[in-house]
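Records of this kind hold a single protein each, on a pair of labelled lines. Below, a sample record shows both lines together.
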Amino acid sequence: MLERGHHTTRPVVAEALRSLLAQPAFSFDRALWTRLIPIYETHPKLSCTDIFLSLDAERHDALPLLTFDKKLVTQLGAVDPGDMLGDDR
């Protein structure tokens, strides 16, 4: 997680990400990151990577997102493939 690696808090990381969004010199999907940041702030157990994967799957009409990551299943509505198969793990 970004905050752990940089010994800071989520609000500080979110503000840094917003600052990057404001820089025209950087080329990246601003619409996706604009959606990602508020989710990052309100779901403390999810990483930017988790949220990015979920939003990217949605954007590419690749839902449901299949994952074994229980955080994604419970917080962002992804689907555990084992649940689809009746796996009782």
Q: What stands out?
A: The two ends are 27 Å apart (CA to CA). Residues 61 and 86 are 24 Å apart (CA to CA). The chain has a mean pLDDT of 87. The helical segments are 2-5, 10-21, 30-42, 48-59, 70-76, 81-84.
